[in-house]
């Protein structure tokens, strides 16, 4: 698999994990736990968007 393909897979995994965290936050009954999960999901989404943007410009985020 190419580096771009591996990076694309990483971005997909990060987005999937962010979605899992978001859903877990929606189910959480403890407000503090809910906030922590939402924050983690947001950070992962932001990181995946940044890596995706770097790939679009032809840059490898792993270098």
UniProtKB/TrEMBL annotation:
UniProt cross-references to InterPro entries, sorted A to Z: DUF6381
Pfam (any one): DUF6381
Region (Disordered): 1-63
Stretches with biased composition (Basic and acidic residues): 17-48
Name used for this protein in its record: DUF6381 family protein
Organism of derivation: Streptomyces salyersiae
């Amino acid at each position: 698999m190419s580096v771009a393909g591996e990076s694309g897979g990483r971005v997909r995994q990060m987005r999937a994990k962010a979605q899992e965290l978001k859903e877990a936050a929606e189910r959480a009954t403890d407000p503090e736990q809910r906030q922590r999960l939402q924050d983690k999901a947001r950070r992962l989404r932001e990181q995946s968007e940044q890596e995706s943007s770097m790939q679009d410009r032809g840059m490898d985020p792993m270098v």
